[in-house]
Amino acid sequence: DLTVAYANLAHLAQAHSNKPAYWQQGRRLQTEAAPTNRVATLSAASAWLTLDSLLGVARPGDEGYWDKFSSSRKVAWKTGTSYGQRDAWAIGTTPEYTVGVWVGNANGEGRAGLTGTQSAAPILFNTFNFLPPSKGWFQRPDAQLTDINICRDDGYLSNGFCATKTVKVPTSSHFARITPYHQRIYLDATQQWRVNSDCESVATMQTRDWFVLPPDQAHYYQQYHADYQPLPAWRADCVAELTNQVEALTVVYPQEGTQVYLPRELDGKLGELVFRAVPTQPEALLYWHLDNQFLGTTQYFHQLAAQPTAGKHRLAVVDEAGNRIERSFEVLVHEAKSQ
Description:
Elements: H1 2-13, E1 22-24, E2 35-39, H2 44-54, E3 76-81, E4 87-93, E5 98-104, H3 116-130, E6 145-151, E7 164-170, E8 182-187, E9 206-211, H4 215-221, E10 249-253, E11 258-262, E12 273-279, E13 285-290, E14 293-299, E15 303-306, E16 311-319, E17 324-333
Parallel strand pairs: 11-17
Antiparallel strand pairs: 1-2, 3-4, 4-5, 6-7, 8-9, 10-12, 12-15, 13-14, 13-16, 16-17
Helix pairs in contact: 1-2
């Protein structure tokens, strides 16, 4: 079914006419009937953009240098690995061929290293190398595409406060959300502190456009983007307007309404639950409370282990500025079996 889906992407990417396109059913031989009565809801532009994106997926081994050679075959492809490494697959498509490879054990037993990239992908590209050379790549359906400017950082439509790049989208696209993560801020003359007109002369304010993510998203984003900078702190004599304040801290775990399962360790003791929070300023001092009972404080590394009893609980985290966030969760405990 997956291979047929990829074959249909290739089929639809070449359907540039205004006539309705139909889904194709899988077939083993060219002489077998392929069309169905099901009208395709995916446009040629959407199919082409999907395949163009899959063309950039990194290939394994020596195939990783394919784009350095003009004679290399263009293949839109993707891999997959099932839970427990029981199945590995890789599927690739060109305008002429679609190839699907599955690797696994007939009894469903998993094997270490049985992944789509390591096991199925090499077979996929070896198969393509045995096929006749491709006549070219999918023609871009320019009549069904239009250009829009998006923010480089987050991919949303620009609000005028971000560096942009131009990308193509289907003309039928209804994507119209403006970035919520770029804002214009005002700094003092040293460009170290945030200020407003209540505490700083407008003539000396420095204007900056800033990329601001919620604390939990920023925590993960900056692991792969070392240039990400948190918002500068407000100067001591300034009072930030509440409407302009971003979320000061967030609880990463547990989320609101989460059911947490606490198993028993090998020694029979009950395991611990590790709470995790992310403030905008990592050096902030956080105060942790569980069911109105003080647990402790954290700074820089905001993780705290506790062993709550079975039932519903309320976690509260407060920073030095009085910002507070709460999460309700329920603890499920695995009871030891009686002998």
